[in-house]
Every structure is written in C-alpha cells, then in structure tokens.
Amino acid sequence: RENLWNKTREAFRYIYEHHVEEYDWFFKADDDTYVVVENLRYFLYPYSPELPIFFGSKFRYPQYVKQGYFSGGAGYVLSREAVRRFYEQALQDEERCSVVFETEDLQMGRCMESVNVTAGDSRDAFGRKRFLPFDPAAHLANSDTEDPGYWYNEYSYYKPLSGKNCCSDFAISFHYIPGYNMRMMDYLIYDLHAWGSSYRYPPLPPTKTPEEAMAVAEAYPIKSVQTTAESSTHTPSTETTEETFSSFKP
User: What is the value of pTM for the model shown?
Assistant: First the structure.
C-alpha cells in the first residue's frame, strides 16, 4: 500500500504514453481482486470509450469529492477519454490532483471530478452492484451490512443490498480473494454445472446515447453521513489520510 497513489498515477501515465490508442477501456484492480472479464466486457458494450466516464463500486465523501469515488479494492475502469483527460489535464494540476495524497481511490475520484470525468452508475436494472468491495460471502451472509451504523452502509453511494439479492447476476469483481480462493472462484464460475439446468443469456444491450450513458442516480440518503469537512472525523489531510483510512478496507 505504500505510495499506492503515486504508483497508480505513474501506471496511467505509462498507459497513456504507450497504449492509450490500442484499447478502449483500462481497468485498475488490486492483486486480491477477482474479475469476471466476460461480465466487464458485457457491461461496457453499450458505452463509447470516447465518453469521459469511469465505473466501479461507488463510495461517498461529499466534502472532498461531490460526485463520489470508486473503491480501489473492487477495481475501477476508465474509458480511453478518461485516461486522456487524466494525463493531459489532471496530472498537470497538482493543486486538485495532488502527488502527496496517499489514499489512492479517493484521490483518483477527485482528479477525475476536476477534469469533468463522470463517475458512472454501474448497477444493474434491479439496483444490484456489479463491482463488489468484499468477497462473495461477506455480501451474501455478513450481518454487518445489515447494521445501519456499519461503515460500508455509510460510505456506499448507493444503498447496499445483502443476502441472495446482494449482487448482480453479472457481477464483475470481488475484493479480498486470496490466491487459493481464486482457483475456487474459477471452478464455481467456469467449471461447475447443475445437471438439467440451463441459463438463457440476455442479448447484448443497445448502444447508449451520451445522455443515457452519463445519467447518474443520486446517492441514497442516510442521516449519519457527515456533510462538512469541519464536522467530519475523517477529514482528508496529507498528514493523517493514510492512518485515517486504514480501517476502511476497500
């Protein structure tokens, strides 16, 4: 985690300088993030990579990033245009895209907001998340998510769902997956079949207009979220940010 933000900055700098015209989308994740790439491609299919947009598991910190930011652990994906703006504009503005800030995902959100890159809505038609900041068991069975005071419920931009309805049928990513569970996930997703059952895959979605793509639902209301930096016990600063956010797992 040391210098993670600057490692991320430099990774996207390298991408821009060497590969930005070779691909449409660029996905950043941790080494313990499990990603179903087929579902990522399915989700991105209707979106133009020339739109200034990125997607992930959206958190809120309105006193620092008004439109929300994406959990680094669940991963986030930038369009080609988002990478262009990050390199050509955000990296040139150290006041709004600081090099000394250590909380990678929060700072990426601030940088993207400063260059008008939209933090998109990646939920499915039922409001279920596709990018998940914990492992499947935590979302399916963890009673912590049912506690209104649990930090995830306060920081999640959209209302978290738990139990069988926690996650999209086409979930893209899960976090905190150790190496041995990566193999288990592979088996459960790609090799295990229930005899006699079949799944009818939906067709590819139609291409979204720019207006449809950039439409973002508002955050769900909760009373416990601090709205001003003065009243928050988690105010970002270059001296305390890393320590303050160390308990915020994603």
Answer: 0.86
